[in-house]
Amino acid sequence: MPELPEVEAVCRRLREEAQGATIRRLAIRRASICKPDNAEDISAAARNRKLRSIERRGKHILLGLSGGTTLYVHLRMTGNLYVIPDYRFAPVSARALFELPDNRAIVFDDPRALGKITLSARLEQLGVEPLTPAFTVEKLKEMISQSRQPAKTFLMDQRHIAGLGNIYAAEALFKAGQDPRKPIATKRAGAMYSSIVAVLADAVHSAYSTYSKPGHLLAAEEQKLMVYGREGEPCRVCGRAIRRIPQGGRSTYFCAGCQK
CA 249, CA 178: separation in Å to the nearest integer? Predict the structure, then answer.
């Protein structure tokens, strides 16, 4: 599943390649991606509208159109959003095509058709954006003081920090030396804050350079994962075997030697 860095990379590329373009037509090939909205209503709302802004909120992509309409895109497990030079050569897994006047198109490509394009989204419950000035040590300390959740569960709770997913939560916990099974102590808020920001900043840079589609990172992938997906392999720091445990319905990877 695309996490914050991958979604951010998608937004940055779209801004470079398509922001300011007029959407001649939005052709929705799979109406179910628009539920609970109506696909025809969404197509009509986008027709002949200029794509004025492309923003990210958590893992959501917000396409701001002229006239005040916003389309909300969620990539879910296998979705992607990118520009192709000719809409007539869209892949068979394209669920929607934002056709542009020069025959280019923004493709909503989603092999499993789990992603969404809607006219509204419930974003008010999302927490602070971790790569903005609103995310501070003090803010994190305040959130930690009000929670007794295990560290990994705390970081994965989108009401706390928006967009932080399984991979980068595990990596941030390792970098901070925090056991994912234990609550975060307020005195460790500074280390946790620095780790989250550093891991996400590196991941965004890497994703922008190398990200191709969900589950597929190019061979030039720059970010070396320390624990995620490395069960049984030696820790790159202390040499102990990386462990994997179930937590909140997801796999948590950690080093029992480095994370206390």
Answer: 20
- Ordered structural domains, the chain, with CATH: 4-118 (3.20.190.10), 137-254 (1.10.8.50)
- Residue 44, classed as helix, strand or coil, is helix
Q: Residue 18 is inside which H or E element, if any?
A: helix 4-18
Q: Hey, what are 45's tokens?
A: 């709302």
Distance CA 123, CA 101 (A): 32
Q: Strand pairing partners for 96?
A: 28, 108
Q: Which helix (H) or strand (E) holds 56?
A: strand 49-57
| Alpha-carbon span 7 to 72, nearest angstrom | 13
Catalogue the active-site residues: 2-3, 59, 250
pLDDT at 208: 85
Angle between helices 189-210 and 4-18 in degrees, nearest 10: 40
10-residue averages of pLDDT along the chain (260 residues):
89 96 97 96 98 97 97 94 95 97 95 96 95 97 96 97 95 98 97 97 87 57 82 98 95 97
Bond prior to 5 in cis (omega within 30° of 0): no
Residue 259: predicted pLDDT:
98
User: N- to C-terminal Cα distance for the chain?
Assistant: 28
How many whole angstroms from its chain centre is CA 201? 13
Contact 26, 93 (CB under 8 A): no
pTM over 0.85: yes
User: How many CB atoms are closer than 10 A to CB 132?
Assistant: 9
Q: In terms of C-beta density within 10 A (0-12 exposed, 13-18 middle, 19 or more buried), how is residue 225 classed?
A: middle
Which pLDDT score, from 0 to 100, does residue 222 have? 57
